[in-house]
Every structure is written in C-alpha cells, then in structure tokens.
Design brief:
Distance between the termini: 15 Å
Largest sheet: 6 strands, parallel
CATH class: Alpha Beta
Helix content: 25-40%
Number of helices: 5
Strand content: 15-25%
CATH topology: Rossmann fold
CATH architecture: 3-Layer(aba) Sandwich
Structural class: alpha/beta
Number of strands: 8
Shape: globular
Number of domains: 1
C-alpha cells in the first residue's frame, strides 16, 4: 500500500552524522545517497511535512559517535531546523527508549519514509520496529547506503550485496522499498 495524499508522512533521516562521512567508515554503496536525501529533505520542508533527524550516540568511548566528538555532529547538509524533531539513540533501533513512537502518534503520523545509514544496521532495525508497531514504512533504496562486510561464514560481501539483502529482508514484511522519485510522489 502506498502512502496516500492528504495524510501526514514523516521523513525519518537516520544517522547522517559526520562520523559516517569519513573513509574510516569503510567501502560503501550508493554514492548519490546524500544528494538524494537533500532533495527529499528540501521537498519535505517545502510541503511542511514532519521531519525527524535520528542521531546515534555510542555507548563506547572508542566510537566516533561517542558524545563530545565531531563524529556525532550532523553533516552540515542535514543540520535540523528548529522546527524539526531530533531523536537520540544509542542502539540501532530509533524506536527503542527514544519516545519516537509516542511523538509520531501525537502528531497523527502513520506513514514513514526512511532514509540514511546504514541500510544493514540502523535503517533495518528501525524499519523492522516501525512495521511491527503498525506504521506504514517506506525505505528509499537510493537514499540509503551501507558498507561492505564479511558474512557469518567469512565470505566477503560488497556493500551493494549487503544493501540488497537488507532491502530484501524488509520488503513486504516490514516496509515497501521505493525509489526516491516514488517517495517524492507521496507529497
């Protein structure tokens, strides 16, 4: 089921922080992600639909996302406006212990367009919860990215392979996978 016009649709931007924009983060896919998120964000702002910025605050002092380090800061292109909601999390799922579900329900928002990083971690965890909580979630395939990694058997998987598997894990069960152009049509 696609989002319908005349309903509130929140744009959820996950972990677009400075720590994700470094080479240390690793080999990634979808180099157009940032430009696509910027376009979605501009459209959401123009339409005055809700925007939620999710920020990861690590529990590990060695992490670039440990509070007080530059890695925690939002990338300049994704700096929230004063009217936009910020959710701080310290686990991959943006719904866990954050008040996000309550915030969305209080604003009668039941449809979510999810973008950001990483597809195989925070995006997937958040979207699984969104689906389980009854939200209509849409993951924008070309406005999310992830990193290459070894699988459980020790085989190397490219970022494109990891991304495709994460999208497959979510599609139809917890969310619908859409393109940026399809997401723009929701407004």
């Amino acid at each position: 089921m696609y989002a319908t016009k005349n309903q509130r649709v929140a744009l959820i931007i996950i972990d677009m922080q400075q720590g994700m924009a470094t080479e240390k983060a690793g080999e990634r896919n979808n180099p157009q992600t940032e430009a696509n998120i910027q376009r979605l964000l501009a459209t959401w702002r123009q339409s005055q639909q809700p925007v939620v910025h999710v920020r990861h605050l690590s529990r590990s002092p060695e992490s670039p996302f440990w509070p007080g380090q530059s890695g925690v800061l939002f990338q300049p292109a994704f700096e929230p406006l004063a009217t936009e909601h910020i959710v701080d999390k310290n686990v991959p799922d943006a719904f866990t212990h954050s008040g996000l579900e309550r915030w969305l329900h209080a604003r009668n928002v039941h449809q979510l367009v999810v973008v950001g990083v990483s597809t195989s971690n925070s995006v997937e965890a958040t979207v699984r919860s969104a689906g389980n909580l009854g939200f209509n979630a849409y993951v924008v395939s070309d406005a999310t990215f992830t990193f290459a990694q070894q699988d459980y058997t020790g085989s190397f998987r490219t970022a494109d392979e990891v991304h495709a598997m994460s999208l497959a894990n979510l599609d139809g069960e917890y969310a619908q996978i859409v393109s940026m152009e399809e997401a723009l049509a929701f407004l």
